[in-house]
Design a protein that fits this description.
Elements: H1 10-20, E1 44-47, E2 53-59, E3 64-69, E4 75-81, E5 86-91, E6 98-105, E7 108-114, E8 120-126, E9 131-136, E10 153-159, E11 165-170, E12 176-182, E13 188-194, E14 197-204, E15 210-215, E16 221-226, E17 233-237, E18 243-249, E19 255-260, E20 266-270
Antiparallel strand pairs: 1-2, 2-3, 3-4, 4-5, 5-6, 6-7, 7-8, 8-9, 9-10, 10-11, 11-12, 12-13, 13-14, 14-15, 15-16, 16-17, 17-18, 18-19, 19-20
Length: 287
């Protein structure tokens, strides 16, 4: 059934009588009659021939509001004043749930897009660093399978605080699983994470040398592999972040193995050009 119109307040009755008398907004009235300069009311409703509200003008604590309805009286669009500026909401006639929202925020503007179930699947907003776009999974929350991730972020594109670009892909935990970003000097970096903890990082130094880091469950570096002009290097760290084992070539290209204690003391074993003379087990070595 069509929705019944809301009873007019006294100011609305005055406005309705004027409209009924032929003084239409935006049009000419009777010849010789002066148009009304101001019509004041707390709420104004425009109805159709059978009394269904099609348009409603009102106010809230922040300012004015405008509601647009379909032929059955269902709200399909709301526009109004918000805390930081204008707000727009577009709804679905089938469910009455939001399909699209946009508004002004403290840092600029923001918009959200929803799927048929009312799940927010896209966010675009301005931040203090620049633009940010987040795409989420659709579906019905609480259902098994892919729908269980409904509304959770899947991909995010944003500008980092240093002005560089950043792309994040999210996993089942809700945190970033893979992050592509610009490292030192604008060089690329790829990080695989579990929640907020990095597990593997691929990056480059300012000298364009590639590096790979593996981390433990607490984010501490365990193994570092890097390239450099003299050759690659591998470093294995203890839980305190101190190198325990190093493998790398020296300046002459010969391989070296370094063993270090927790105080950073140790020794380096270097390869020899000439193979040592084999000795039998149990024989004394010559000085």
């Amino acid at each position: 059934m069509p929705a019944r119109p809301t009873p007019f307040v006294s100011g609305m009755l005055v406005g309705a009588s004027l409209l009924g008398g032929g003084l239409m907004l935006g049009g000419a009235g009777d010849e010789g009659s002066a148009p009304t300069d101001v019509i004041q009311t707390r709420r104004l409703e425009i109805v159709d021939d059978i009394g269904t509200v099609r348009l409603a003008l009102g106010s809230n604590e922040e300012g004015g509001t405008l509601g647009v309805k379909d032929k059955l009286g269902r709200t399909i669009m709301l526009a109004g004043a918000g805390q930081h500026g204008g707000v727009l909401v577009v709804t679905r006639t089938e469910t009455g749930q939001a399909a699209f929202t946009a508004g002004a925020t403290r840092s600029g503007g923001a918009l959200q897009v929803f799927d048929a179930s009312g799940v927010r699947v896209m966010d675009a907003l301005a931040t203090q660093d620049g633009g940010q776009l987040t795409i989420a999974a659709a579906g019905s929350p609480g259902e098994p399978g892919p729908g269980a991730r409904a509304g959770r972020p899947a991909v995010r594109l944003q500008v980092a605080s240093d002005g560089s670009g950043r792309v994040e892909s999210f996993g089942d935990t809700g945190g970033p699983a893979v992050t592509l970003s610009a490292g030192v000097g604008g060089r690329g970096q790829v990080t695989t994470s579990a929640g907020a903890t990095p597990l593997v990082t691929l990056t480059a130094t300012a000298a364009n040398d590639g590096q790979i880091y593996t981390h433990d469950a607490e984010g501490r570096v365990q193994v570092a592999i890097a390239s450099r002009p003299s050759g690659p290097t591998v470093r294995i760290f203890n839980r305190d972040g101190v190198p325990a084992v190093t493998l790398e070539p020296d300046e002459t290209g010969q391989g070296t193995l370094g063993l270090w204690d927790t105080d950073g003391e140790g020794r380096t074993i270097a390869a020899r050009r000439a193979a040592p003379t084999p000795r039998r087990a149990g024989t004394a070595s010559e000085d």
